[in-house]
Design a protein that fits this description.
CATH class: Alpha Beta
Order of helices and strands: HEEEHEHEEEHEHEHHEHEHHEH
Distance between the termini: 43 Å
Number of domains: 1
Radius of gyration: 20 Å
Oligomer: single chain
Number of strands: 12
CATH architecture: Alpha-Beta Barrel
Number of helices: 11
Shape: globular
Strand content: 15-25%
Amino acid sequence: MTVPFYRPRRLRDNPLLRDAIAETEVRAEHLMLPVFVADVAKDHEVQSMPGVMQRSVPSLVNEVEALVALGVRSYILFGVPGHKDAKATSAYDHEGVVPRAIRAIRERVGPKAFIATDVCLCSYTDHGHCGVIKGERVLNDPSLELLAKMALTHAQAGADMIAPSDMMDGRVRRIREVLDDHDLTHVPIMSYAVKYASALYGPFRHAADSAPKFGDRRGYQMDFRNRTDALREALLDAEEGADVLMVKPGLAYLDILSDLRANTELPLAAYQVSGEYAMIRYAALAGAIDEARVTRETWIAMRRAGANFILTYHADMAARQKWLD
């Protein structure tokens, strides 16, 4: 050849050089583990999510203590109460399952664990919807007051971060106002800013016992056919005081993550949801894929698209089997 030309393979041949110039990485601190804490005496495995448990408060404390020692430092708690009613009273009960779990983790583990809590009413209502119901309609503004009470209860119990997932309009502003009014200005809000009405949530509804008793959630969760709607929702939450913006689901919506990364400097979270977990898990159990390699690849994809951290049910397995070493 008479003219020099670039050979990209030169930079891929040596593994040390490959690692040195890699643009994206995943470390343990980039992962947050979703956990289900229930008003139960005995733990139960979620049938549609092999390896994921509904845990009692004592069991959850033991699990968090063990995982913190392995490097899993961040958690988001989902409550599965023993009592449900139309006004979701268990959601903002200071002796409810989530506040008890927060206090118990704090007593045992202290600040070594970072605790976020999901704020939504669906697991706590007898109808399974994420807000106050009139007839078969979810009322937006009355729901805000209950969500704010729930957020305040969690923050007063010691939660490090509040994560509203209900998709009611204005909930970030109302939660921020209530937290600030109670001298909790230091508690950040991670908004489920872009939460699509996805078929990938099925296993979660088993785990959280949160399936709606009538209708569906497409009247408040986002239409997955829409892209510009996501940016509008996210920027509204940022204006209302969100500190972190989440995209849910994660892997199927990398274009949305990328859009947000180009339009905001706020930290972004991606939720690798229950259906995404289950698809990987079942394929691995069938011997079709290498679970560790496939999971790490999906995490890299979400990080590459702009996620600062990832909510993933695989975080505990990654720590125990040393996937990130």
